[in-house]
Amino acid sequence: MNKTELVGWASSLILVLTIGKQIYKQWQEGSSENVSKWLFIGQMAASLGFTIYSWLVGNWVFVVTNLVMLLSGLTGLGIVLRHRRRERHEGKGPQTKGKLKTERA
Fold first, then answer.
1. Cα distance between residue 30 and residue 24, in whole Å
2. What residue spans define the domains of the chain?
3. Is the Cβ–Cβ distance between 41 and 77 less than 8 Å?
4. Contact predicate 93/87, CB 8 Å
5. What is the DSSP letter of 27?
6. Which of 22, 71, 76, 89 has the fewest CB neighbours in a 10 Å radius?
């Protein structure tokens, strides 16, 4: 491995760890408040495009990095959707704001 590839792999590791930490924090806190699902949808679209591009130009650092970022986007989106579904079920979601809760008899 040459120095150029080493810089690429080190940078890739930093990026993946940073995003992974944020997704873990979101999961651990049990909330995705103020996190848009479109953030992850956009990230996945970009990561897929960058993965294809990187593969076409033969840059394995970015092929691997963008595949991992695609998986992190799927994970993040899954967490957001799970939190939103739970919030709706508990009556705390955006669809229930401003509506009166009715008690079951």
1. 10
2. 58-91
3. yes
4. yes
5. H
6. 89
Amino acid at 44: M
pLDDT band at 93 (very low <50, low <70, confident <90, very high): low
Residue 100: the pLDDT is 42
Q: Provide Rg for the chain, Cα atoms.
A: 19
Q: Burial letters for 55-82: b for 16+ Cβ neighbours within 10 Å, e otherwise?
A: eeeebebbbbbbbbbbebbebbbebbee
The amino acid sitting at 21 is K
Neighbours of 100 (CB within 10 A): 5
3-state secondary structure of 103: coil
43-82 residue pLDDT tens: 999 999 999 999 999 999 999 999 999 999 999 999 999 9
Q: Which residue has the higher pLDDT, 71 or 30?
A: 71
* Closest CA relative to residue 68, chosen from 14, 26, 104, 32: 14
